[in-house]
């Protein structure tokens, strides 16, 4: 099955498989069946087999899955073995928390630049990186060619920054701004993060139990 035909729901389950397999490795588990994995993850064994078969399977009849090998293969599929570079724009409370508390290196990215429009923040060091002025984004991107940008800025500020970054060749966005990037740029890869949507989903579940 080609990558273009794999559903988004399958892709979104891959990081969860990777995380659970990592927990199993830390617990000393070396192999596991799809049934055992399904019980731990709250999925069906059939769903797990179908998901993994999209990428070749990896299991052996009567043996199950080698935990270390399967995690490595899923990591390869996720591109974790080929780290991408990313810049983060907006070092307010959210941006600072993202910069400090996300383990980028284990998630397939290397954070190389921090930017903010507030001159009072410029020069401060976060995660061993100096905060630069947003006025220097063009020069930095031309010199460093980042693969992705993390937007922790208000929606009204995102449009101009997105246009600027797109022209500079950035095609991946981890977007906290609520600005719909994919609507204007169909060739970009966007992961939109909406904390409010997640909280409202929890409200629905509690209200409709």
Overall mean pLDDT: 92
Q: Tell me the series of helices and strands, N- to C-terminal.
A: HEHHEHEHEEEHEHEHEH
Q: How far apart lie the N and C ends?
A: 38 Å
Number of distinct beta strands: 9
- Label the structural class: alpha/beta
Strand content: 15-25%
In terms of per-residue confidence, which ranges show pLDDT below 50 for 5 or more consecutive residues? none
Largest sheet: 7 strands, mixed
Widest β-sheet, arrangement of strands: 5-6-4-3-7-8-9
Rg, Cα atoms, Å: 20 Å
Number of helices: 9
Helical percentage: 40-55%
Shape label = elongated
Care to describe what's here?
The protein is an alpha/beta fold and 209 residues long. It has 9 helices and 9 strands. The strands form 2 sheets. A 7-stranded mixed sheet has the order 5-6-4-3-7-8-9. The protein is elongated and about 60 Å long. The chain starts with 7 loop residues before the first helix and ends with a helix.
């Amino acid at each position: 099955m080609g990558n273009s035909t794999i559903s988004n729901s399958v892709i979104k389950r891959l990081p969860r498989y990777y995380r659970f397999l990592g927990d199993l490795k830390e617990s000393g588990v070396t192999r596991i069946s799809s049934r055992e994995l399904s019980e731990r993850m709250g999925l069906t064994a059939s769903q797990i087999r179908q998901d993994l078969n999209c990428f070749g399977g990896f299991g052996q009849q009567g043996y199950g899955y080698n935990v270390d090998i399967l995690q490595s293969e899923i990591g390869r599929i996720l591109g974790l073995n080929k780290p991408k570079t990313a810049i983060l724009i907006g070092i307010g409370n959210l941006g600072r928390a993202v910069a400090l508390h996300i383990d980028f290196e284990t998630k397939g990215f290397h954070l190389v630049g921090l930017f903010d429009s507030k001159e009072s923040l410029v020069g401060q060091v976060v995660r061993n990186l100096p905060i630069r002025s947003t006025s220097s984004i063009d020069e930095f991107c031309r010199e460093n060619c980042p693969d992705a940008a993390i937007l922790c800025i208000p929606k009204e500020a995102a449009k101009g920054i997105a246009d600027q970054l797109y022209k500079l060749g950035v095609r991946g966005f981890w977007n906290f701004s609520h600005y719909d990037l994919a609507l204007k740029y169909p060739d970009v890869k966007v992961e939109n993060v909406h904390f409010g949507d997640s909280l409202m989903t929890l409200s629905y579940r509690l209200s409709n139990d």
